[in-house]
Amino acid sequence: MRSAESAGLPILLNASKENAPVGAFSLYENSQNMNQQNFSRPTRVAQEIKKTLADLLLREAKDPRFHKINLTDCKISKDLAVAKVHFALIGHNQDDPEVANVLQALDKAKGYLRSELGRRLKLRIVPDIRFYYDSAPEHAAYIEDLINKALNK
After folding, report:
1. In the 8-state DSSP scheme, what is residue 65?
2. pLDDT for the residue numbered 18
């Protein structure tokens, strides 16, 4: 496979659409295409929703149960209609009644959180928020304990 330089094509290091000659290899266009593929609109919106919800729950929510929440993931549907927010509670496992209480409180505050998301993110369609408990952190701790036990034997 021949490189662009050996093929007689100029290599533009400071390439832009405005100054790129026709038919030239443009690093600018390749980098733009990569960014569009890796960070689609739903991915970017999900990141912003996670960041904004974390800020709302930590700083503005009056319920003290929300201060223990750690948002672990946010996934959004392609049509931006549904956001699945995964959370973990610091110091609790899935079987604790506190998890059910927090999940119930989150469902009760869903309307307020959704309206604040719409106001802050200025989305035309604000997604429906669904909360799920994420047991991955406690599973990771369990695996880490197993590894430590195996190494100490």
Report:
1. G
2. 52
Parts of the chain with a pLDDT under 70: 1-38
Q: What is the DSSP string of 71-127?
A: EEEEEE-TTS-EEEEEEEETT--TTSHHHHHHHHHHHHTHHHHHHHHHHHH--SSPP
- For the chain, the first-to-last Cα distance in angstroms comes to 53
CB 50 within 8 A of CB 74: yes
The size of the chain, in residues, is 153
- Which run of H or of E encompasses 22? none
Q: What is the pLDDT of residue 6?
A: 47
* Range 65-90 burial, b when 16+ CB lie within 10 A, else e: bbeebebbebbbeeebeebbbbbbbe
**What residue has token string 């290899």?**
25
Verdict on whether the full-model pTM lies above 0.70: no
